[in-house]
Amino acid sequence: MTEATKPKNIGNSMIKRPQRLADEVYSILYSKLMSLEIEPGNRIMIDALVKELGVSQTPIREALSRLEAQGLVVQAHLIGYSAASQLAHDKLEKLFDMRLLLEPYAAENAAKLISDEGVERLKCIDAVMQGTESRELRGKFLDFAQSDGQLHDLISSSSGNELVHDALARLHTHIHLFRLLYLPSATKEVNEEHAEIVDAVSRRDGNRALKAMKFHIEQSRRRFLDQGNTSDSE
């Protein structure tokens, strides 16, 4: 160990930055954004987070940079960080257009290329979601949404096309925000659609996986846009 990497002793104390501190701060801020505790468009005050979390600005800024790369946070000159706004109706339509182009392709390829370990992971994620009933969702919907993201991410990462995976990873962040606002009552439909996708991928049936994913994305579009139109008219 070199002098530069040794922890510094001051008196009887040893100062050492906690492992994964930035990751922990990221997880806290991610949860606040995804659960809408920090509402879309609201400013994120770094000094307030320093006091709340009891950490320096450094891990907070590192976490905010990661969240900015995901599209959950935006930074403006002379203003600072804010929670990203919800997608406008026209952009949401375009987002679903892109998902329809990419995700059925990813599911078809994943059915052919996914490893046995990947299939087991896919089944485990699906089992967790299937075990969450609508009446249990209060306080748990963030977990349901995160599992949903993990399921879609595992399928796209198993497609053998890293560019498709990277593109879809960015899209799902925005979808999560809409999911938290609009979908607590739709978990039964989501679970049924996922079950069909997972079964098709597990059986290595590419054509069936493609069709199941296409149907799921089309139904997701209907749920989001129908609910958005209802909200707009209220």
Plain-language structure description:
There is one protein chain. The chain has 234 residues and is mostly helical. The protein has helices at 21-34, 46-53, 57-70, 89-113, 116-130, 141-157, 162-182, 187-202, 206-233; strands at 8-10, 13-15, 43-44, 73-76, 80-83. The protein is 68% helix and 7% strand. Strands 3-5-4 form a three-stranded antiparallel sheet. A two-stranded antiparallel ribbon has the order 1-2. The relative contact order is 0.12. The model is unreliable at 1-16 and 230-234 (pLDDT under 50).
Quick tags:
disordered C terminus, 234 residues, disordered N terminus, mainly alpha, 68% helix, two-stranded antiparallel sheet
Radius of gyration: 20 Å
Distance between the termini: 65 Å
Quickly count the helices: 9
Q: Numbering strands along the chain, what is their spatial order in the largest sheet?
A: 3-5-4
Q: Uncertain runs with pLDDT below 50, 5 residues or more?
A: 1-16, 230-234
